[in-house]
Amino acid sequence: MSQVQVIKPGFYTSIQDLGRLQSACYGVPQSGAMDRLSAQKANLLLNNAEDAAVLEITMTGPELLFEAACQIAICGAHFEVVLNDSPLERSKAYTVASGSRLRFGGLKEGFRAYLAVSGGFLTEQVLKSRSQYAGITQKARLEKGDVLPYSASETRKSSTARVNFQDSGLFHSKIEVFKGPEFELLEEPLQQALFSKDFSIAPTSNRMATGFNELLPNTLKGIVTAPVIPGTVQLTPNGNLIALMRDCQVTGGYPRVLQLSEKGISALAQKRPGEEVGFELEGE
Questions:
Q1: Among 277, 279, 255, residue whose Cα is nearest residue 177
Q2: What is the spatial distance between Cα 167 and Cα 102, in angstroms, rounded to a whole number?
Q3: Which residue of 35, 151, 160, 189 has the lowest C-beta tally within 10 Å?
């Protein structure tokens, strides 16, 4: 077993896979990659299993030292990335030699990138997932000095490898949604406002939920506590919209007015605080 040493962790870098898909009955959040499409694409470029653990890199990236040779691929947000002295591109497979350093620089587009390694990162599994989450795993994110196990591989993947993957809308301003369970309880003007207004991302947004700065007039009462999942958009009593993300709770008492599609969750995960988005019904 070989290791990656974390020289610098970046702002918020964590191990994520597709999450804990069978633990909601225990009150455990799903977790997993915020932008699932980009994580899966990075794994696909390396012929990994789709649920292989990757690094999720948010806003500023890490500096990593690779103990042994392997292959890597980076997808999602566009960072300036250098392997030793050579710049790397997104959505390509590269061979990393033993002793190499990988450095993430400035962020050009998007908000979260995904670094896959051949065979996936082999950190501890808890409840059938390697995804980091406070209270479930020992740490919620990477820290300086951490070491991440992986299987060394000398097999070369061509940097010209490409995959046909439906991720072209990740950086668009329109977020794909479905009507939520309580949508029809909204008055018609408010239903229309959900799809005609633009909403800006609140600075308090995180892996649990994305908030929006704009308020909507809300005359709905709360609901009996009901199931929620990543992508559920709630309307609070004071008129705030909150889009629940991968680390969200499993139940909630606010009206569920919209539900993001999987593509919609990934697209919203790529938006920075202050960016404006609009909601668009799937298929329309």
A1: 279
A2: 25
A3: 160
Separation of alpha carbons 208 and 130, rounded Å: 17
174-281, superfamily in CATH? Cyclophilin-like (2.40.100.10)
DSSP-H helix ranges across 112-270: 188-196, 262-269
- What is the C-alpha separation between 251 and 268, in angstroms, rounded? 21
C-alpha span between 52 and 39 (Å, rounded):
9
CA-to-CA distance for 84 and 71, rounded, in angstroms?
Answer: 14
Contact 236, 242 (CB under 8 A): yes
Please list the residue range(s) of the chain that carry CATH number 2.40.100.10: 174-281
pLDDT by residue for the chain (284 residues), tens digit each? 899 999 999 999 999 999 999 999 999 999 999 999 999 999 999 999 999 999 999 999 999 999 999 999 999 999 999 999 999 999 999 999 999 999 999 999 999 999 999 999 999 999 999 999 999 999 999 999 999 999 987 665 555 555 655 666 799 999 999 999 999 999 999 999 999 999 999 999 999 999 999 999 988 888 899 999 999 999 999 999 999 999 999 999 999 999 999 999 999 999 999 999 999 998 76
Q: Which residues contact 141 (CB under 8 A, 6 or more apart)?
A: 9, 12, 13, 14, 132
DSSP, collapsed to helix, strand or coil, labels residue 166 as coil
